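Form 7-S
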Amino acid sequence: MPPPPTHVTPPTLPHTGADVLGLAGIGAGALLVGAGAVVAARRKSGSQN
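Output:
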């Protein structure tokens, strides 16, 4: 039988938060796409004056 380990790691805290990094990236991408659509629409309607 092997001897017990001498180095004991302390218990870690449980992960209680949500992983929102991916969701924030999707939201930022949607904002960029929406802003690009607004700029494109303004350029298109402004060139007809």
